[in-house]
Amino acid sequence: MTIVKVKWNQSKCPTPFACKKCLQICPQAVFRVDCVKTERFKETDPNEPNVYVIIPFYVSECVACNKCVEVCPNGALKIKIKEPTPAPEATAKA
Ligand code: SF4
Ligand code: SF4
Fold first, then answer.
1. What is the pLDDT of residues 5-22, one digit of tens each?
2. Ligand 1 site-directed mutation target among 25, 61, 67, most atoms within 8 Å of CB
3. Residue 53: in which H helix or E strand, if any?
4. CATH classification of 3-93, choosing from 3.90.1150.30, 3.90.550.50, 2.30.30.100, 3.30.70.20?
């Protein structure tokens, strides 16, 4: 089975809630944006760095179309595809 990994680099995307381009373009709705810092009775500022994070939550749904990588203005996303290793018998016959 082919395994797809989606990597998000926080240092290149400190304010994801102010951008959200990857969330909007992904045809599989792989991403989720979560708030990691909340203060009672205070609205969270989407422009404050490192308050929101991108989580490739439904990574098993990723079809490796690369649209998120192409749309990201900061190069904060990477898609890695790991092909399955052929079974020993298949290699011997080839
Ligand atoms: S590669 Fe395509 S399917 Fe996968 S997370 Fe990016 S936009 Fe979504
Ligand atoms: S498109 Fe890039 S910069 Fe924008 S929220 Fe997604 S990862 Fe961050």
1. 999 999 999 999 999 999
2. 67
3. strand 52-55
4. 3.30.70.20
Strands 52-55 and 3-8: unpaired
Closest-CA residue, ligand 1 atom 6, reads: 68
Report yes or no: 57 and 28 within 8 Å, Cβ to Cβ.
no
Check if the beta carbon of residue 3 is closer than 8 Å to that of residue 79. Answer: no
Question: If we measure between CA atoms, which residue out of 71, 85, 93, 73 comes closest to residue 2?
Answer: 85
Give the chain's mean pLDDT: 92
Cβ(76) – ligand 1 distance below 6 Å: no
pLDDT in tens, 40-80: 998 889 999 999 999 999 999 999 999 999 999 999 999 99
